[in-house]
Amino acid sequence: MKTRFSSLVGIKKDAMQKSERILQEQNHILQQAQKAYDVSVDFLSAIQIPNHGKIADFLASRELLEVQRSIIEKNHEWILFAQSQVKQAQENLKKAMMEYEKFNYLELEEIKAILKEQKLQEAKELDEIALLTFTKKSSLNGNL
Left if phi > 0, otherwise alpha if psi is -120 to 50, otherwise beta: which for 53? Predict the structure, then answer.
């Protein structure tokens, strides 16, 4: 049954579904960031520091450690950013769901009101038909 809220309910439902998709995408990005962080930490622990050898080898391993630590820091920042994006997407989804539920409730209430009015109208029509039928029978019986 169409009401004045039907189109708004459709729009709000689409907005809610879009917010759900965005949240899923942000969760996926967060998972990717966490995987990248884990890989970079594992790589750091796999780096072997030479115990003896040329000074160039020691300097190279130190530079490799510094670079890997900076990569870990960047991945950690990426995780923090992705977490904030997920939180924002959750808030947007919550707002979209509230809007959808509000207009859906209004539509259902209007449908109830319309159905109630229809039932009342049907009852009036039936009463009128019954009254006409009774009056007609009474006048026919009275004429006999």
Answer: left
**Cα–Cα distance, 84 to 77 (Å, whole number):** 11
Ordered domains of the chain (ranges, CATH)? 6-108 (1.10.287.1700)
Give CA 47 to chain center in angstroms: 43
Q: How many CB atoms lie within 10 A of CB 74?
A: 13
Instruction: Return the DSSP state at 4.
Output: T
- What distance in Å separates the CA atoms of residue 70 and residue 82, rounded to the nearest whole number? 18
Give the CA dihedral 27, 29, 30, 33, nearest 10 degrees: 160
3-state SS, one letter per residue, for 24-77: HHHHHHHHHHHHHHHHHHHHHHHCCCCCCCCHHHHHHHHHHHHHHHHHHHHHHH
Segment 105-138, tens digit of pLDDT: 999 999 999 999 999 999 998 888 888 888 877 7
- Reported pTM: 0.74
